[in-house]
Amino acid sequence: MKCKLFSASLALALAATTGAAQAQKAEVVHWWTSSSESAAVREIANAFQKAGGVWVDQAVAGGSAARAVTINRIAGGSPPAAAQFNTSKQYRELIAEGMLSNVDAVALKEGWEQLLPRPVLDSIRVDGHYYATPVNIHNPGWFWYSKAALQKAGVTAEPRDIDEFFAALDKLKAAGLIPIAVGSQGWQESLTFNALLVNIAGKDSYLKFYQAHDPSVVDSAPFKRTLQAMRKLRGYVDAGSPGRNWNDGTALLINGKAGYQIMGDWAKGEFANARQLPGKDYGCFSGFTPTTPYVIGGDVFVFPKTGNAQMAKTQQLLASVIVKPATQIAFNNKKGSIPVRMDTDPAQFDICAQAGIAALKDRTRHLPVSDMLMTPDMLGSVTDVISQFWNSNMSIEAASRALRNALKS
Ligand code: GAL
């Protein structure tokens, strides 16, 4: 009996060693460096390790820095196994240059076409091939508020339009609190502008601008109202705003020093990490009305070609593990995002994610994130104008002119 047990455990140990020898190390570049982001990406790493992979973490702070590392490594001939990009056009050039492996086999086997929402499919599928694995869905334009701060300021209801929003910010200001925690960095400024555009001007204006690149929309009354609101919003930020990281902004809400933050639902990861609960400690809404468009963005991993057949198998394993129901639930609960799988049971998530999942069911509310609609170059020009507008006394007329020019870039 003793002998039997010994040989069984020896066999298991041997099998494990053989498995480990076969599993290749997968270096994964990403920009998930805040506490909640690190905790979330560990869920993917653990699931991958359980499936026999070996995860080698390469976290690089900041989205544009991380993407630059990946592109430089591909160009330099030492590509990572996988790399994070946004659900966007950011990796189209890599596809065009033949640098990325497709994951068609995994996509077909797991039925991505039926599982994933249209805007996500449109981003990852190019010329009929799947070049990225989606990880999550983030809406970059959620509104978050600290219940303690709002209570102190006497704000009792969520705003139903921009005027009510500014009225709440006035009360927070009068109470000596930071009305809105804005982090003045280019990407955060454009995220703020987009949230205002969706809420004030709506879907048509957003699509005319980002999708049709129609310069006439910039002169329309709703677009002008958006720029005016952006200008007005600047009167509610604190001296610590320039350069502030998004998670430091969320921390101001967590400790009750600031009332509001406009930020993607990755902010929720930070609340969760601080053991705060939606509905109790903080509130969330993705728009002023129940029919406000729901902006769909998020993250994907791409798989650079390495010329190594075993690595290609490892990449397919990672692609498959990421979309598995259990990984999706574990990762997205920590990340603050909602799952890419339309068949996920909402009961596995908190009330903010449930609101996101419900919004996603209504296709008329879907709106792709701006970087799915514009090339990185054009988007860069638009972001520069918005940033300049936010950080100077540039007039609405000058900003409109510069935005019309950016649409020609
Ligand atoms: C976004 C990304 C999110 C989030 C955020 C802040 O680009 O989609 O997953 O982590 O950056 O790091």
Which terms summarize this structure?
5-stranded mixed sheet; 4-stranded mixed sheet; 409 residues; D-Maltodextrin-Binding Protein, domain 2; 52% helix; 13% strand; alpha/beta
What is the fold's blueprint, element by element?
Blueprint: H1 2-22, E1 25-30, H2 35-50, E2 54-59, H3 63-75, E3 82-86, H4 92-96, H5 104-110, H6 112-115, H7 118-124, E4 125-126, E5 129-130, E6 132-134, E7 142-146, H8 147-153, H9 162-174, E8 178-180, H10 186-201, H11 203-210, H12 221-233, H13 246-254, E9 258-263, H14 267-273, E10 282-285, E11 294-296, E12 299-302, H15 309-323, H16 325-335, H17 351-361, E13 366-368, H18 370-373, H19 376-391, H20 396-406
Parallel strand pairs: 1-2, 1-3, 8-9, 11-13
Antiparallel strand pairs: 3-12, 4-5, 6-12, 7-9, 7-10
The structure holds beta-D-galactopyranose.
Summarize this entry quickly.
Helix content is 52%, strand content 13%.
Q: If helices are DSSP runs of H or I spanning 4 or more residues, what is the number of helices?
A: 20
> Based on the structure, what is the oligomeric state of the protein chains?
single chain
Question: Structural class given helices, strands, pairing?
Answer: alpha/beta
Radius of gyration: 23 Å
Report low-confidence residues grouped into runs of 5 or more.
1-21
Please list the strands of the largest sheet in the order they lie side by side.
Answer: 2-1-3-12-6
